[in-house]
Design brief:
Elements lengths: L7 E10 L3 E4 H9 L7 H8 L3 E4 L6 H16 L8 E5 L10 H8 L6 E5 L5 H14 L5 E9 L9 H4 L4 E11 L4 E8 L7 E2 L3 E3 L2 E3 L5 E2 L1 H23 L8 E4 L4 H10 L11 H4 L6 H11 L8 E8 L3 E8 L1
Parallel strand pairs: 4-5, 4-6, 13-14
Antiparallel strand pairs: 1-7, 2-3, 6-7, 8-15, 9-12, 10-11, 14-15
This protein binds acetyl coenzyme *A.
């Protein structure tokens, strides 16, 4: 088929990677108790829906997790790394200040020459990255993109703050997005509002050979909660309108996996039964930019989400950033 007939982009393979170390709420409660901090499995499950998360070991970086997820996605798509002409890695926990984790991933994949860049939109990063890759494929500047979300949030958690350290985990998810004669990605909707930057941030920075400011994540949980439910509804409606679809067309909603109560609030506003939501927060915790591609891969490999299904992906996170992508798988 000629390049000009390939006007759309379509996901042709998914993959993911979770570090081997699984930490249950009880494990975490025990570790925090050693520091004189009280928490419990009951509190974490009731307020968040999280039962366990995975933490990378000291030798594993975001690019290592990204590499495994990417290999699985390429295998599922039937593609070789050499066929990839664009790599976008969404991450807030990059291997280094620079170069980008995407270029490190490219080298670990054994390829060189194709475009590679990181995208920083925190927990909305994967939705942003997918929208950018879709746009590049539609304009003809890429044909076979590797779009990855990879995080090692355990590195930036403050384990003396029980209000945040119980929420996050590490992992990576990836998709292969290819030029296609049929959609694929139907529409995307992206937003940001930097006036909310202080409610969820890791404000430290590197300067003069030292870290200046707090390099650990801090969050105003209730403020994030309220904002997240509102913008997720707005973005879901906007992307449906752009695609000329309605909420009745959604086979599956895969929201950012931050908190089961945020997901329940979103489902209620969209009049979607909970059994149309893919939920992995119970086993993964919040893996930021990795959470949506991880959940997508789990859903595809378990056979729940199938080719032809209409899927809405929704992200929300620090910045504040938020957005949605509607696609036919
Ligand atoms: N264990 C036991 N008690 C705790 C814990 C804990 N881990 N954390 C907080 N508490 C206590 C608080 O100290 C407080 O005690 P107090 O009443 O004596 O002061 C009490 O529990 C209630 O605290 P709240 O913050 O009001 O609890 P809330 O019901 O709002 O739940 C939570 C907190 C889970 C953070 C919630 O606000 C939330 O989910 N917010 C959304 C934020 C989120 O999911 N962020 C993820 C990153 S953002 C993103 O990805 C979009």
């Amino acid at each position: 088929m000629s390049g000009s007939a390939l006007r759309y982009s379509r996901i042709t393979g998914t993959g993911s990677m979770l570090p081997a170390r699984r930490v249950t709420n009880a494990d975490l409660a025990e570790q925090l108790a050693d520091r004189g901090i009280e928490t419990s499995d009951d509190w974490i499950v009731e307020r968040t829906g999280i039962r366990a998360r995975h933490f990378a070991d000291a030798s594993q970086s975001a690019s290592d997790l990204a590499l495994d997820a990417s290999r699985h996605a390429l295998e599922a798509a039937g593609r070789k790394a050499a066929e990839v002409d664009l790599i976008i890695v969404a991450t807030s926990t990059p291997d280094m200040v620079f170069p980008s984790t995407a270029t490190i991933l490219q080298h670990k994949l054994g390829i060189a020459g194709c475009a590679a860049m990181d995208l920083q939109a925190v927990c909305s990063g994967f939705v942003y990255a997918l929208a950018v890759a879709d746009a590049m494929i539609r304009t003809g500047s890429a044909r076979c993109a590797l779009v990855v979300g990879a995080e090692v949030f355990s590195r930036i958690l403050d384990f003396s703050d029980r209000t945040t350290c119980v929420l996050f985990g590490d992992g990576a998810g990836a998709v292969v997005l290819e030029a296609s004669a049929t959609p694929g990605i139907l529409a995307s909707d992206l937003h940001a509002d930097g006036s909310h930057r202080d409610i969820l941030c890791t404000p430290g920075t590197v300067s003069g050979g030292a870290v200046l400011g707090n390099p650990l994540l801090r969050m105003d949980g209730p403020a994030v909660f309220k904002l997240a439910v509102r913008v997720l509804e707005e973005s879901a409606r906007a992307v449906l309108a752009k695609a000329g679809r309605t909420d009745a067309d959604i086979d599956w909603l895969i929201p950012h996996q931050a908190n089961i109560r945020i997901m329940q609030g979103t489902a209620k506003k969209l009049r979607l039964p909970m059994d149309k939501l893919i939920v992995t927060v119970d086993e993964h915790g919040n893996t930021s930019a990795a959470s949506i591609p991880l959940a997508l891969d789990v859903a595809v490999r378990s056979g729940r989400v199938k080719a032809g299904d209409t899927v809405m992906l929704e992200g929300v996170g620090g910045g504040f950033t938020w957005g949605a992508v509607l696609l036919d798988l």
